[in-house]
Specification:
The chain is an alpha/beta fold. It has five helices and four strands. α1 links the parallel β1 and β2. The N terminus is likely disordered.
Length: 178
């Protein structure tokens, strides 16, 4: 568990979100998480360093997030999010403290990547839904082929998981009201 106070020279926590293509779920998670932690008034502003997202597949490398992801973020007040899709890299395991997979398949793929390439590093690889707050792990279903409010559900999960992760990781930080 990290300290809620930031001292000179202390390491900020870094977070990477991972899905399959890096245009829907992981980008939604990154946008939501950034909106919570990067605001100078956030109690986490000085505690979180790098926040990024990537995919386990290289299908969309260089592409913008899905238009429905961006629309959902905008509908929820997140208007400054930009990202170019990228694939998971060996260096991610060394550079990030947490690597959060969106579903069990992504989690297995990330673990297999680490094992197959014998990549060391500090990263804790976890299912993002371990921070569901419900007492059970949740997966973030890929909204790409789902009709209806799938992107809004993805947003809600990412917001809830982000808040729960931050509260768990920094229990001494004041909890934001919004």
């Amino acid at each position: 568990m990290a300290s809620a106070t930031s001292t000179p020279g202390s390491e900020k926590v870094s977070v990477l979100f991972v899905c399959l293509g890096n245009i829907c779920r992981s980008t939604m998670a990154e946008g939501v998480f950034r909106s919570i932690v990067k605001d100078p008034s956030s109690p986490y502003h000085n505690l979180i360093g790098t926040v990024d997202s990537c995919g386990t597949g290289g299908y969309h490398v260089g592409d913008d997030p899905d238009s429905r992801t961006l629309s959902t973020l905008r509908d929820n007040g997140i208007t400054n999010y930009k990202h170019a899709a990228r694939r998971l890299r060996d260096s991610d395991f060394r550079e990030f403290d947490y690597i959060f997979a969106m579903d069990n398949s992504n989690h297995s793929d990330v673990q297999r990547w680490r094992s197959r390439k014998q990549v060391g590093g500090k990263a804790q690889v976890m299912l993002f839904g371990e921070f569901s707050g419900t007492g059970r792990k949740e997966v973030v279903q890929d909204p790409y082929y789902i009709d209806g409010d799938a992107f809004e559900k993805t947003y809600e999960q990412c917001r809830r998981f982000s808040k729960n992760f931050l509260a768990n990781t920094f229990p001494d930080a004041p909890q934001p009201t919004k």
